[in-house]
Amino acid sequence: MGPDSYDLVSLLRDSYVDNPPALVEAMIDEYLRLTESPDDVGFRRRFDVMSVQRHLKALGTFGYQSTVAGTTRYEADVPRTLRYVATVFDRHVRFDRLRTLLSLHVTELG
User: CA dist 14 to 11, 65, 70, Å?
Assistant: First the structure.
C-alpha cells in the first residue's frame, strides 16, 4: 500500500500529459466524493507533495537519460514537468527553501 495520492498524481499530473487544471480539480473532487474522504484540504496537500516528489524524480531521470545515456526523447517533457513543480511551489510556502536551493541550478524554478 502506498500513499493515497500516488495513483491519482500518476494519472492526472503525468510528465508526458498536459491535463487542463479544471479537469485535474474535477477528478480530485470526484475521487474525494467516491472515497467519501472527509479530508479534502489534507488530501489536496498530499496530492501536491506527491506531485513534487514524482516530478523531481522524473527530472532526475530525464537528466540522466539525456546526459549519461544519450537518450534525448525525454527532453521535450522537461518544460512541462518543471511547470508542474513551479505551480506547486507557487501554491505552498512550505516549498520556499527547496525552490530557493533548486533555482540556483534550474532558472525555470526561480
Answer: 6, 18, 23
